[in-house]
């Protein structure tokens, strides 16, 4: 796996491109007029994407009918010297459709305990928590 990063303006805007030619923009979001996401926001996005793929895949195999899927990820950072790495993250999944809430919760559990390579990469330094809502109800 390899990506290429290219600076595309005179400031901090970078384009990151994978081997298939797909790209995202990274920028210094503390500067006005940023046109991309910050590198730390991209880490949150990666966790959401990786776990989202897992959850949808698991539920599709179980023939659950997902009509809508979204996720939010909030990260808490801590000052360590000059850096501010993540201390914890909470991923909240919102699913709608004909879905067994227990299966949705189990899919999220499997993602974070077994499959999600991004969250596994962050262990043990970042505590990743999750919540699941199915058709507006919190699954506990």
TrEMBL record:
InterPro entries: KH_dom-like_a/b (IPR015946), OsmC/Ohr_fam (IPR003718), OsmC/Ohrsf (IPR036102). It holds the Pfam family OsmC. Signal peptide: none annotated. SUPFAM superfamilies: OsmC-like. It comes from the Bacteria. PANTHER family: PROTEIN YHFA (PTHR34352:SF1). This is Disulfide bond formation regulator.
């Amino acid at each position: 796996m390899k990506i290429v990063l290219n600076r595309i303006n005179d400031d901090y805007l970078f384009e990151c491109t994978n081997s298939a030619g797909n790209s995202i923009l990274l920028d210094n979001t503390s500067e006005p007029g940023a046109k991309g996401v910050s590198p730390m926001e991209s880490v949150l996005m990666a966790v959401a994407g990786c776990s989202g793929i897992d959850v949808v895949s698991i539920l599709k195999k179980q023939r659950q009918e997902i009509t809508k899927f979204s996720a939010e990820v909030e990260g808490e950072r801590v000052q360590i010297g000059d850096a501010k790495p993540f201390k914890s993250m909470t991923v909240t999944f919102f699913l709608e459709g004909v879905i067994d809430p227990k299966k949705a919760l189990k899919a999220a559990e499997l993602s974070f305990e077994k499959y999600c390579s991004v969250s596994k990469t962050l262990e043990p330094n970042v505590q990743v928590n999750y919540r699941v809502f199915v058709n507006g109800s919190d699954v506990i």
